[in-house]
Amino acid sequence: MIEQLMTIDELAHYMRVSRFTVYRLVKSQFIPGTKIGRQWRFQKEEIDRWVKDQSRRDRPRLL
């Protein structure tokens, strides 16, 4: 399980956004993350689930 934890830099690369964007999202508690010591860590499964939920939420709906 521990090999699945990502750092901010790894997550930024995985999500194709800047490191600053990831840091801003995690500080505002918008993206799921855990602080271990002085560094943030992210589980790939949680991030994938979060991205999927975000894409569903932003999708327009037809009535």
Pick out the low-confidence regions.
none
Helix content range: 40-55%
Q: Mean of the pLDDT scores?
A: 86
Task: Write down the secondary-structure element order.
Answer: EHHEEH
Please give the order of strands in the largest beta sheet.
1-3-2
End-to-end CA span: 42 Å
Q: Mind telling me the C-alpha Rg?
A: 13 Å
CATH topology: Multidrug-efflux Transporter Regulator, Chain: A, Domain 2
Number of strands: 3
CATH architecture: Orthogonal Bundle
Proportion of residues in β-strands: 15-25%
> How is the biggest beta sheet arranged?
3 strands, antiparallel
Supply the CATH class. Mainly Alpha
| Tally of helical runs | 3
Rough shape?
elongated
List the domain count as a whole number: 1
- Class computed from helices, strands and strand pairing: alpha+beta
Walk me through the structure.
The chain is an alpha+beta fold and 63 residues long. The protein has one domain: Multidrug-efflux Transporter Regulator, Chain: A, Domain 2 (Orthogonal Bundle), CATH 1.10.1660. The protein is 51% helix and 16% strand. A 3-stranded antiparallel β-sheet has the order 1-3-2. α1 packs across α2. The protein is elongated, with a radius of gyration of 13 Å. The model has no long low-confidence stretch (mean pLDDT 86).
